[in-house]
UniProtKB/TrEMBL annotation:
Top-level taxon of the source organism: Bacteria
Pfam family, one: DUF1731
Entries under InterPro entries matching the protein: DUF1731, Epimerase_deHydtase, NAD(P)-bd_dom_sf, Polyketide_cyclase/dehydratase, START-like_dom_sf
SUPFAM superfamilies listed in its UniProt record: Bet v1-like, NAD(P)-binding Rossmann-fold domains
Protein name, UniProt field: DUF1731 domain-containing protein
Domain DUF1731: start-end pairs: 419-468
Ranges of residues in domain NAD-dependent epimerase/dehydratase: 167-374
Length: 470
């Protein structure tokens, strides 16, 4: 049996800069927080041995006492490094490769476990190494990049006043993904956060309600971009109290940013304001950006208030990104649905006919970059997105029954028990979530992105799941 995870990130750095960090295995813990320690005995060469241990407080000591030494299996300076850690009945291979492309370097990490216990060791040993790959890469960039102002230091305009991108709500899944993408592209990034925590990004403290030092810092920037992703997860029971909490967690930070922007000497250069396709309500009809927003209660009302709070922002250019469900290996919703499918509950939910709007993480990042006036990806051009509402969603929404079929294939469970709406409501109460997230039908399509000739890497759900399963 084999367990494998492969991930790739492009860096605006030459391969030699990344290699100076990768070849020092003792620096592995500096960019991968799942690693507690690592060292090679003697010089780095094929056949050399060494030891590493997980940072986990239980697995780390156990690994140090019981695991044999790893062996370096390949060294190609500036291009490839691989080593194998023996496991009972098999082993774990870690491989890093560097390939220069589009004015930078693709860094690929592949972790493979083989043997009869590969799946079990994949969960305990492999998964921690690969989880949070985006943040790993942001840390790796900061270790490998020249200091600001030094030869080779990157900036998107070549000057000393490169724009600063401030991300509110940047500690979540999307904020970490986009922030890491921007850091690896040589962009300056800062997070607005309520609680400082270990992070690959610079952080500014704020409470999301009042002005303070964070506002003075941003207002002093000669060039500023804002990405507002602030808001607690929708994954909670749909009680009036929780709907009020969802609305406040979005409206208050948005109003605070808008009011602060009016006090700054210069308008924000680019503003990406997060929203959601749930604003179109529960409907089987196709909805693009020109579709009238219905005055319905519930989650749709939360999103209407969220967008209304953005009125009056001081920005030269702004995009309201109505985002659908974002699919990625580490997306919380995929983990929750996959767990249900593994337990046999992967049949259609409700009638199975309701529409599900989605977008792959890579395409969401590319749409976000376009909204910020950046090339959609290395080697690609910029898209001139108009100001206003943009649906960030795949051009091909699917019905729930098709989504669940892909989930069953993804987890390797061919059959799934259907969950009629009454049963789903009971299960949602036990799981402390909102059944409307699964039962509501949203059939949003990306009219603006289509008109701008946005090239979706994953337009079809089947392709998205193949990438996630890779």
């Amino acid at each position: 049996m084999t367990w494998q995870r492969t991930s790739t990130q492009w860096f605006r750095l030459p391969a030699e800069r990344l290699w100076t960090v990768l070849e020092r295995l003792d620096r592995w813990p500096e960019w991968n927080t799942a690693v507690g320690s690592a060292a090679v005995v003697g010089s780095l060469r094929e056949g050399a041995t060494g030891h590493y241990s997980p940072a986990h407080p239980l697995m780390g000591p156990l690994h140090r006492r019981t695991a044999p030494a790893f062996r370096v299996t390949a060294v190609d300076p500036g291009r490839r490094l691989a080593f194998r850690q023996p496991q009972p009945g098999g082993g774990q291979d870690v491989e890093w490769t560097l390939e220069e492309r589009a004015g930078g370097t693709d860094f690929t990490q592949k972790v493979t476990l083989d043997g009869p216990l590969a799946q079990q060791f994949g969960l305990t040993a492999g998964e921690p190494l690969v989880r949070g790959f985006a943040a790993q890469c942001a840390r790796l960039y900061r270790l490998a990049a020249p200091a600001a102002g030094a030869p080779g230091a990157a900036s998107d305009d070549g000057g000393e006043h490169a724009p600063l991108t401030a991300i509110a709500g940047g500690t979540g899944f999307l904020g970490t993904s986009l922030g890491s993408e921007l850091v690896c592209d040589g962009q300056r990034v800062v997070l607005l956060t309520r609680a400082r925590r270990p992070s690959p990004f610079e952080q500014l403290a704020w409470d999301g309600r009042t002005p303070g030092a964070w506002s003075e810092r941003l207002g002093a920037e000669p060039r500023l971009r804002i990405v507002n992703l602030a808001g607690v997860s929708l994954d909670m029971p749909g009680t009036p109290e929780n709907l009020a909490k969802l609305e406040a967690s979005r409206v208050e930070p948005t109003r605070t940013l808008v009011e602060a922007s009016r006090t700054w000497e210069r308008p924000v250069e680019r503003w990406l304001q997060q929203s959601a396709v749930g604003i179109y309500g529960d409907s089987y009809s196709e909805a693009d950006e020109s579709t009238p927003v219905p005055p319905v209660p519930g989650l749709a009302a939360v999103v209407r208030a969220w967008e209304a709070a953005f009125d009056g922002a001081s920005a030269e250019r702004s995009v309201v990104l109505r985002t659908s469900v974002v699919l990625a290996r580490e997306a919380a919703i995929l983990e929750r649905l996959a767990t249900v499918a593994r337990l046999g509950g992967g049949g259609p939910l409700g009638t199975g006919m309701q529409w599900f709007s989605w977008i792959h993480e890579a395409d969401w990042n590319r749409a976000a970059r376009a909204a910020l006036g950046l090339p959609t990806a290395p080697g690609e051009g910029t898209l001139d997105l108009p100001d206003g509402v943009v649906n960030a969603t795949s051009p091909y929404p699917v019905q729930n029954r098709e989504l669940m079929a892909h989930l069953r294939e993804f987890v390797g469970v061919p059959l799934g028990i259907p969950a009629p709406a009454p049963l789903l409501r009971v299960a949602a109460g036990v799981l402390r979530t909102n059944p409307r997230l699964a039962l509501d039908s949203v059939r949003a399509v990306p009219g603006v992105l289509r008109a701008a000739r946005f090239d979706f890497r994953y337009p079809q759900l089947s392709g998205a799941f193949r990438e996630i399963a890779a």
